[in-house]
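Need the bound structure for manganese (II) ion, inputs here:
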Amino acid sequence: MGVCTAGQMALLSDNFTGPLHPWARPEVLTCTAWGAPIIWDGTFDPAKAHQKARQQNFTIGLTVFAVGRYLEKYLARFLETAEQHFMVGQRVVYYVFTDRPDAVKHVTLGKRRRLRLEHVKRKQRWQDVSMGRMRTLHEALGGQLGREAQFVFCMDVDQYFSNAFGPETLGELVAQLHAWHYHWPRWLLPFERSALSAAVLAPAEGDFYYHAAVFGGSVAGLRQLTAHCTQAMERDQLRGLEAVWHDESHLNKFFWLHKPTKVLSPEFCWSPKIGQRAEIHSPRLLWAPKEYTLVRN
Ligand code: 2GW
Ligand code: MN
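Answer from helper R.:
Posting the output first, comments after.
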């Protein structure tokens, strides 16, 4: 594991102060080969990031889909814990996409925070619910969401916040290291390997395996990401194909072609099933338990 070269440090230096720098975590990789920071606890100053974001008067969007049984099962806890931990002190707009807006329970929101409910149709197959998010997000980013927010995070609903998830995570294109795969060699990563699929990555390709449960960026960055994934999934569908991890496979292809400008360590989206790991200091989001027999039909 390496930290940054001097050149990469120069690129990153704006984000560091005092004792907070990539060498604060010598045991983990804190910089990608293309010079993007990998955010680990202790390498960034959340107070400085907060101050900077306030000065620029950002509005930060958070999109989440809660369709079918995922609404009752996960949404309330996701939103309630987001109120406690997501971009506290910033201006925030939640976009909740659901097939049953009337069934969404009221959540008490803090100052400068609002929630918009957007109706989406329920799909027959769960794979289509998951993959359909890319087109819906693309359209939303081209509409009101794109006009009112500067940065947006798009998240799975089957998780909850457990520690501060603040503006140190904002960037043009932000990718999340997958908790189960961040320490595996590249050839073992579950990228799509079929050359017939638009999501294909050859054995020597792929930087990291990114988790589709958390991705973010500027409105322009995410418009490009969602356009790419929507088109790639349509191309596959015309050929009667579906990538091995659905939208996540296409997201990984996109991030291979367009490198993220910021990468979040697995501390930002951790699976409690993995248990304790020395390098995981304070998980920001935790995967909620899944009951496949209950929710997958
Ligand atoms: C999805 C799978 C099986 C049964 C139901 C659903 C489902 C998903 C649903 O009934 N209603 C719903 O709103 N969703 C939304 O899609 C919800 O926001 C959920 O978090 C998201 C992705 O589905 P999820 O969380 O069950 O998929 P995971 O946790 O296995 O996630 C990874 O792989 C997916 C593709 O297979 C996606 O790329 C996802 O972003 C990844 O985290
Ligand atoms: Mn999920």
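Comments: The chain has a mean pLDDT of 92. Residues 78-295 form a domain with the Spore Coat Polysaccharide Biosynthesis Protein SpsA; Chain A fold (CATH 3.90.550.10).
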